[in-house]
Design brief:
Helices cover 43% and strands 28% of the residues. The protein is α+β, with helices and mostly antiparallel strands and 99 residues long. The chain has one domain (4-98): YaeB-like fold (2-Layer Sandwich). The longest helix has 18 residues, at 29-46.
């Protein structure tokens, strides 16, 4: 059974902003971003330990085709997504959020 998925409000905001930015660049591009994100999160739900720790207990996975990283932690029953950041952002920003 897959672990429960929880997306923190800050991560929801990150996703909404990225979706809006991509959708403004081309109709349907935001939807492709969401599809890539959904596929990656589904993989995280199936195999969360596949991804390395990058900060304390937090793990990171990268989206395909989009320069975004998903930061999460996991237990046997729950996966919590804390941030969805563009990879060119200052790493101090996501470390600050995760601390």
């Amino acid at each position: 059974m897959a672990a429960e998925l929880v997306i923190a409000p800050e991560a929801e905001q990150d996703i909404a902003e990225a979706y809006g930015w991509y959708e403004a660049r081309g109709v349907g591009l935001g939807e492709r971003f969401l599809a890539a994100l959904d596929a990656r999160i589904a993989l995280v739900q199936r195999q969360p330990l596949l991804f390395s720790r990058v900060h304390e207990e937090y793990r990171r996975t990268l989206l395909r085709r989009f320069p975004y990283a998903v930061f999460f932690d996991c237990s046997e029953t729950r996966i919590t997504v804390y941030a969805v950041f563009h990879t060119s952002r200052d790493p101090a920003k996501w470390r600050e959020r995760l601390s």
